[in-house]
Amino acid sequence: MKAVKMSQRAGIRTVGYFMIGHFGETEKTIEETIEFACTVGLDDFRMSFFTPLPGTKASLMADQYGEFDNNWERMNLFSPVFIPAGMARDQLMNAQRKAIRKFFFRPRAIWSYLKMVRNPLIALRGAYLLSQYALKK
After folding, report:
1. 129 against 38, higher pLDDT
2. How many structural domains compose the chain?
3. What is residue 137's predicted lDDT score, i.e. its pLDDT?
4. pLDDT by residue (tens digit) across 46-105?
5. Cβ distance 45 to 18 under 8 Å?
6. What is the rounded distance in angstroms from the CA atom of residue 113 to the CA atom of residue 111?
């Protein structure tokens, strides 16, 4: 938190990059990740899915820890190809949408983006697209 505050005081927008769906992931650990992202004071947020890329040690171990679709064409970090044991693909997708809602629909985040608006029409379109993804069930 100290590094985030120091960066912001220096005029640097802070961005947190988070990944869910790794070996041993549970609903509880995902919730802890989301809470951390929302309380650390970041200006921006990204969330991707753990992807055991070919040639990595993780790709050799993935089947031991869950269900792994080892198809290179589907590995894009934006859709889950590895599902941890005890979880489902829909849970991961819903968790990502929940994280987006919780982070971006906070008053602090909304105000942060409104301060950067130069073209209201583009801002409205971006807000609309974000809401369509985040509110999808």
Report:
1. 38
2. 1
3. 59
4. 999 999 999 999 999 999 999 999 998 899 888 999 999 999 999 999 999 999 999 988
5. yes
6. 5
User: How many residues belong to the chain?
Assistant: 137
- Condensed to tens digits (0 to 9), the pLDDT of residues 11-23 reads 998 999 999 999 9
The phi-psi region of residue 22 (left if phi > 0; otherwise alpha if psi is between -120 and 50; otherwise beta) is beta
Contacts of residue 47, defined as CB under 8 A and 6 or more positions apart, other chains included, come to 17, 18, 19, 20, 37, 96, 99, 100
Residue 58, domain CATH? 3.30.750
Question: Domain residues for 64?
Answer: 2-134
In the structure, what pLDDT confidence band is assigned to residue 128 with cuts at 50, 70 and 90? confident
**Are 43 and 13 contacting, i.e. CB atoms less than 8 angstroms apart?**
yes
Angle between helices 89-104 and 27-39 (to 10 degrees): 20
CB-CB contact of 51 with 77 (8 Å): yes
